Amino acid sequence: MSDANAGYVAELAAALRESGLPEERVAATVADVATHLQETGADGLDEFGPVGEFAAQLAPAGAEAVAESPVETWRWTADTYADEALLNRFGAEGWEVERIDALGRFVSRRDAERPLSWEYRRELVSLLGREDLDERLAPDGWEACGNWLMYAWFKRPVAVREGPAAELAAPAPRPAARSGLGRYVSRRLRWTLALTAVTLVVAAVVVGLAEGDAASGLGFAGGLLAGAAVPLGLMAVVSWRTERVRGRADSEAL
Amino acid sequence: MTATPADRRASWFKGVLDLLVLASLTGGESYGYEIAKTLDAAGFGRIKGGTLYPVLNRLEEAGLVAAEFRAADKGPGRRYYTLTDAGRDTLQAQGGQWLAFEASVRELLAKGGVA
C-alpha cells in the first residue's frame, strides 16, 4: 500500500473512532477499505473522497447517542519479557488497554455487557517516537495503545479476524491484584529508576572528586545529565538484544 | 432545461443505486469491489467506493443486507454482504414501483415521438 493510502486509512480510522463508531466496526471498515484500495490500486482520496465526508457518511451523527454499557477498569503491570503473552491472555478475556500510565501500568477497560476479545503486539521504536508505524499497521486494524521508552504497543479487536465469533459470552473474572510495590509500579520502571539513581550518584561523586568540589555547578550538572543517559542507553541496547534473541527464537520455532 | 446529460444520468442513478445493489446480491454474497464490478459490467460505469460504501452501510442499517467480516486473499479482510428476507421483499416491492414508473415514462416519451 502506498504511503498516501496508508495515511488515508489511518486518518479514516481516527475519524471513525472520533465519531463514536464501535471499535469492532471501525476495525472492520478500515480493513475493508484497505483491501479495496489494494485490489483496485486506486488512490484513497480519489476513490472514497475527503476523509471527513466519507467518515460522516459511514458513521452518522446518531452513532454518539448509543448508550454506553457499564465498564470495568483495571490497571496492571507486566515485565517486558512477559507482557505480550499476558496482554494477549487478558485481551482474550475482554481487557482492552487504553494507555500506559506514568508508572508504566497498562490502563485497561472491559465492557461489562458486550466484552470483545483483543489482541496485542509490541514493536521496537526509536526514542523519538513511533515514526510511520501507526500508518503501516492501521490497514490491518491495529491501533496504538501505549509507549514506554523504545517500546510501542498496538491493539486490535479479534473480530477483525474472526468476526462476531470474537464476542465473549462469559468472560473470566478480573485477575487478582498483585501485592506490594509490584501492584503499583512495573519492574521495568523500578529497574530504570534504580539504575538511574545509582548512576546519578556515581556520576556526581566522580565529577566532584575530579574537580575537588562536589558542588561545582556546570560540571556537576553535566555529570548528572551524562550519568542519567547511561541507564537509558543500556536499556536500549539490552532491549535491542532481547528483541534479536526473541526474533531468532521465533524463527527457530517455525 | 439546465441539466447536462451527465447530471441527469447521475441523478437517475442515485435514485436507483440501492435497488441495483440489492439486485446484484440476489445471486449470492458479494463485497464492495465485486458489486462495483458487477454494476460496471451492467453498463453503469465505474462506481467509486465513496459512492458505493455509504449505500451498503445504509442498507445494512436498514436490515436489508447483512454483513460479515472475513479474511481476504489480498489485503487485511473485507465485509461480505448478503441479502436478507427484508431486503428481498424491498427489492420486489420497490423494484416493481420503478418498473411501473419507467413504463409510464416510456409510454409518454413514445407519445412525444421518442423512439
From TrEMBL, chain A:
<keyword id="KW-0472">Membrane</keyword>
<feature type="transmembrane region" description="Helical">
    <location>
        <begin position="191"/>
        <end position="210"/>
    </location>
</feature>
<keyword id="KW-1133">Transmembrane helix</keyword>
<keyword id="KW-0812">Transmembrane</keyword>
<protein>
    <recommendedName>
        <fullName>DUF2812 domain-containing protein</fullName>
    </recommendedName>
</protein>
<feature type="transmembrane region" description="Helical">
    <location>
        <begin position="216"/>
        <end position="238"/>
    </location>
</feature>
Automatic annotation (TrEMBL), chain B:
<protein>
    <submittedName>
        <fullName>PadR family transcriptional regulator</fullName>
    </submittedName>
</protein>
<dbReference type="Pfam" id="PF03551">
    <property type="entry name" value="PadR"/>
</dbReference>
<dbReference type="InterPro" id="IPR036388">
    <property type="entry name" value="WH-like_DNA-bd_sf"/>
</dbReference>
<feature type="domain" description="Transcription regulator PadR N-terminal">
    <location>
        <begin position="21"/>
        <end position="92"/>
    </location>
</feature>
<dbReference type="InterPro" id="IPR036390">
    <property type="entry name" value="WH_DNA-bd_sf"/>
</dbReference>
<dbReference type="InterPro" id="IPR005149">
    <property type="entry name" value="Tscrpt_reg_PadR_N"/>
</dbReference>
<dbReference type="InterPro" id="IPR052509">
    <property type="entry name" value="Metal_resp_DNA-bind_regulator"/>
</dbReference>
